[in-house]
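Q: My labmate handed me this sequence with no annotations at all. I'd like to see what the chain might look like in three dimensions before we decide whether it's worth expressing. Could you predict it?
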Amino acid sequence: MNQFLLQQGSSKELNAFPHIIEFALKKNTSIHLDSFRSGASDHIRLFYIIDGKFDWQIQQKPYSLYPDDLAIILPGQTLGSDKGYLDIGSLCWLHLDTYPASTGSKIQTGEMSTVRKILDLNAMPVVSKFRDAGNIFQDLKSELFNQHLGFHTRTNALIDQLFILLARVLTQQNNLQRDFPQAFLKLENTLRSSLSHQWTVEEMAGLVGLGSTAFTERVKGFTGFSPLNYLITIRISEAIKLLKRQDINVTDIALETGFYSSQHFATTFKKLTGYTPSQFRKNIISQNNLQ
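A: Here is what I predict for the chain of 291 residues:
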């Protein structure tokens, strides 16, 4: 591809796409000092390396990028180089104002929520050998410059495809690198801090970068429970802590720990402990009085 630079507000090719802030390809053939300063942005920035080697600092951590690598810089994250200049080589980049949402995206809301969680929680901002991104960037250039019939739909579909493939690749990459017990511990802490939320298996799987099926198998192997049953044990353990406090009524405890109603809470609690919440609290009071 030849060099180009499309910018929102000055390039007619982007008039129909307010969510695309910048789309460009640069072939850097010489060193220009002070040409690459570290900084953050409010946008999602994706950089695809065509040729050369680029040594960058992402969130103050060093990364070396090679041909077919993709860097993902989320809003608020910093990107720069301790050299202060852009290395010799070719790269393509796409800056977006937001995740695909009301911009013509066909991704379902639940799927987009999972994609966002995977990206937001991703610890590795560089995806190695992601050639599909290069193909998508090339197709995007063709659609934006030629603007044939259906180019608007096709352009948004390509951005959707990029995010879906990126989430899949990150999930696979993280599966190879992640220590699941550590990831599981972080997941449990997240669940305990937001028990009133009605968690789905898909959301929990997204938090550790796994697909629903793989996540379910991992959790069963790790705990002996299905994800939802394990979530119930967490809810009950947190409820037991709260029942020891006399200043919170049972209904509030039920809602705070994610049960639909006090009746649902009572039924589940008795099934797992042998006591209703009120009986359990009375036993605690009796034991405290005997001490």
